[in-house]
Amino acid sequence: MAKTFEALMRAAKDNQIRPEESMVFDLKPPRPSILIGAADFKLSPQIIEEYHRMKHTMLSSNPKKIKTVLFSSSTEGEGTSTVLINFATTLASEGSKVLLVDANLRNPSLHSLFNLEKKNGLTDLLLGKSTLEGVIKKTQTNNLSVITSGIPHSVPFSLYESNSLDSLIEEMKAQFDWVLFDSPPINSYNDSSALAAKMDGVIMVVQAEKTRWEVAQSAKQRIENDKVKILGAVLNKRKMYIPEWAYKRL
What we know:
Elements: H1 2-14, E1 24-26, H2 45-60, E2 68-73, H3 80-93, E3 98-102, H4 110-113, H5 122-126, H6 132-135, E4 137-138, E5 144-147, H7 156-160, H8 163-175, E6 178-182, H9 191-196, E7 201-207, H10 213-225, E8 230-236, H11 244-247
Parallel strand pairs: 1-8, 2-6, 2-7, 3-5, 3-6, 7-8
Antiparallel strand pairs: 4-5
Helix pairs in contact: 2-3
C-alpha cells in the first residue's frame, strides 16, 4: 500500500498537486450485490478500517469541527454514491447520527439504493412544500437517515444559491452529528460549486485507472476557486493485480 501511495503522490506532483493537498484513501471496491439499507448490510472489516482511517485523517487535519461534507467527483460514474454510503454506514455503526442528502438532482440515486420513495425530498423542502421533519426518511440501518431528491427541478443551481438552504443546513446540523451531501460531477454542472460554498469541506472521489489527473486537477481548481476546503480524495475501484497476501507485504 505504501508503494501505491508513493506512486499516486508522484503522479500528483507531476501534475502540480501538492502531496499535502492530495490525501488519497486507497479503498477496495465493495461487493456489488449488497442491498444498501437492508437490515443485514455489513461492510468487510478491511473496508471499515479504511473508512475509519478516512474519518480520523479528516478530523485530525482540520482544527474546525467537521459536520457538513459534500461528496463529488470530476466526472460521472466514479462511485461517489457508493463511497458516500459506505462512509455514512461506518459512522452510523459507531453511534453517530448521520443524515444523507441526495443533492444530485441531475441523476439522483439514494432513493433507489435505499428502497425509498423519491418524492417529498430536497426540492420539496427548498420550495417550501414540506418541512425538514417531513422529508427525513429513516433507513433500516440504525442512526442513518436520508433526504431523497424530491420532485425534479429544471434549474437545481438556483435552488442551491437560495438563503433558505443556509438555514435548513443549520437545522440539519442541530439534529445530526454528520450531514453528508451527494452531488453531481464538479466539471459537468455548477450545482456542486454552489453547494460546496455552504459546506465545511469537500471529499473528491477519483476512480482508479479511469480519471485522468488533468481532469481531477480541473475539478479541484474549480472548488478551490470558490474558497472551499478539499478535505481529501478517495481512490475508488482499485484493482488487485497480485495476490492480496503478497500485496499486504509491499
